[in-house]
Amino acid sequence: MMIDLTHTLTTSTEAPMSIWPGHPTLEMKKVATIPEQNANVTLISLGSHTGTHIDAPNHFIADGLTVDKYDLTKLVGRALVIDVRGKKEREKITWEDMQKWEGEMREGVIVLICTGWSQYWGKENYKDHPFMDLDAAKKLMETGVRVIGCDTLSPDSMICSPECEVHIEILGAGGMIAENLRGIEQVLALKDPIVSLLPLKLDSCDGSPIRAIAWSAGDILG
After folding, report:
1. Strands ordered across the beta sheet of 176-179
2. Contact 16, 33 (CB under 8 A)
3. Is the pTM of this model over 0.70?
């Protein structure tokens, strides 16, 4: 079974997308159609951090790696879900909340922070998500983990940590952060879950939309 962890990119007003304040919105325009040009072609305009996406170190670290230079083998690997769905809006996710999974944290493991907040995607309170404490981010990096994913706009608080200190901690350690994942709770049902967070190969870019998916290691994809 394959699980799609990606929000749909859409311009629909009936199913609006959540966007970081000030970032470009998605635009899609037909520039060719089958009746007139014998083919459909769409012009797409969006930010590097639109929808389900991944942040490269260069997003906050001036000399950090860009998405086209990052080691792709680090973006496909064993998934470890940290289930903190009991957290309330704007509540900290501390190391104490994560510590019971410490024995499974190591280099090559991709940690997915499951808050359940993807249910509010497109709604006003999506921005009021739980957020990671800086100390938790530091201790997570000490385990050797370098890639994390979250089902929120950011692992940082939009209100309490506008300087994005968790971003700086993780990206400064050479890590990557996938944001706006959906349905992470479904990964809990997988045996030996694997997750893929591969970006587009955008030259010298600080981030990229991704098609995030997860599956069981024993499954043969075909």
Report:
1. 2-4, 213-216, 193-196, 76-83, 110-114, 147-150, 176-179, 53-55, 207-209
2. no
3. yes
